[in-house]
Amino acid sequence: EIVSAQRAQAWGEVARRVAHEIKNPLTPIQLSAERMAMKLTDKLQPPEQALLAKSVKTIVDQVSAMKRLVDEFRDYARLPAAKLQAMDLNALVVEVLQLYGEENATVRVEASLDENCPMIKGDSQQLRQVIHNLLQNAQDATEQRALETGQTQGIVTIETRWVDAAQRVRLSISDSGTGFAPNILQRAFEPYVTTKARGTGLGLAVVKKIADEHGARVDLGNREEDGVVQGARVSLSFVPNEGGQAG
Question: Which of 118, 145, 164, 168 is nearest to 223 (CA)?
């Protein structure tokens, strides 16, 4: 744990520097490409126009991808201290899931919310980011497995449960992907550890930092059936706020 914390601190410094160095030139690059297209398109023959449009689109798309990476670096390096207040975790999940309806979700998300969950102490903005990170990871993994195997695409599930024996509120997100490899399970919360072809590997590192701020325990593992991995599951367990049910 000490080594992991030292790595996280070192990577935080790297993230700050990278975000600063990369962010400044991105907007001028994009604007210059768009300005070229605007000034030159009418002066070119159709074949050259098509080449220019394709090239500009490539530049703009790659700049957008770089901006997303910079945002991840910034979020990890500058994550503010959590402002904990009594909150209804179920209500937050319902709010976030409005963005994952059938009209804009690449993978179907099903919810199972325990009405017996009491209120917790949390920072709603940071926990909203946690839910988004985990849902997006779960969707990516589920979609990737379907593409690789040719099987029918699975679903993502998000659930809350009041675990009476542990006196904790548990939030779990499960996918239908290929699961975590053993080497990833050991280091999943360290920055830049990822199996994705695209991405920084900062998603779970941010989740861990936010969980620590909330005094929450994070568990991750694989869902298995008859010894066969059916996907992954990530769970956060929160200490309830004193007094009141979430309903």
Answer: 145
